Amino acid sequence: MHNIWAKLPYKSYAVSGHDTTSFLQGQLTQDVNQISENHCQYGAFCSHKGRMFGVFLLNKLNDTFYLRIIESSEQPVVNRLKMFVLRAKVTFEALSDTHIGCDKAMAAAFCEAQGITLPTADFEAITQDGLSICALPKHFYEIRLSADSPLAHWFDQTHPDQENTPAVNALRLAGGHFNIQPDGIEKWLPQQTPLDNWGSINYQKGCYVGQEIIARNKYLGQVKKGFAVATIDAPLTLAVNATIQHEGRDIGQIIETQIIGAQTICLGLMPFDRMQTTLTIEGQPAVFHRIQDDV
C-alpha cells in the first residue's frame, strides 16, 4: 500500500530551560548534543539496571527539545524523568499536538503542498514552529503538528480516504519502531532493540542513568536476545508475551502485532541464533529477521 497515513497515540513535551541539554544528557542513552532542527533521534530512558522505562523520539527547535512518547506510558515515564530535575532549570510543558505516521509517498505529498523539501536520510528532520517532520529508518515518517497550526487537519481534509491505521502500524512494526507500553516498562535492554544499530545509544558521552550496565553489556557481549520481525501468512490475534517456539520449546515472546489483510506482522524478542530459522507461533510457521536486515 502507498500514500497511507494515520494518527498515532503519542504525546509530546516541550522541554526547555538553561539546564535542559545537560539534564537530558545525564538521563537518556543518546548524545543529545547531536539533536538539531535538522536531526532527530530516539533515546531510551533507563533504570540503574540498564532496563528501559521508555523510549522517546527527540527533535529540537532553537533551545527547546521536543520529546515524543507513547501516550499509554506517558505519565509513569515522564513523571519519573521529572524526579531527576531537582534544582536544575528545566521545564516540561505537555503539548496537545497531533502525531501522524505515514509512508514516504504521503510525506512527500505533504511536503510538496507546503513547499518543503522532503527529508530522506534516516533521522533527517525538519523542525519549524508548530511542525516537525522526521524521516525514520525503513521509510517510516512521523509528522508532529501543533494544535493551533493551520495544518493540524491537513491530512483529514485533503486525504481522508488514505487514512489506514492497520497499514501504518504494519509499516511501523516492519521497520522496528517499537513502543514501550506500561506492561513492558523495565523489561528490555536497549541493546535488545534496534536502538544500538540506529545510533541511539552513545558509549562515549559519559555518565547517564544505567550507563555502566549498558556499556558492560556492549563490551562483554552479554546480550543474547534481540527484537526481530516476522510476517505470518495468517491473520492471528496474539496477546503480548505470547510464546514463540522452536521444536516445541518456548524461546521467545511477542512484543506487538498488527493484522493487515490476510497477514500478521509480528515484533518479537528471541535469541539471535534462532533468527532466520523457521519457528512457530500458535502452530503457524514464522521466520524472524533482525530489524536491520533487508528482507
UniProtKB/TrEMBL annotation:
Residues holding substrate: E142
Organism domain of life: Bacteria
InterPro entries: YgfZ/GCV_T_CS, YgfZ/GcvT
BP GO annotations: iron-sulfur cluster assembly
NCBIfam families xref list: ygfZ_signature
Protein name: Aminomethyltransferase folate-binding domain-containing protein
Organism of origin: Ostreibacterium oceani
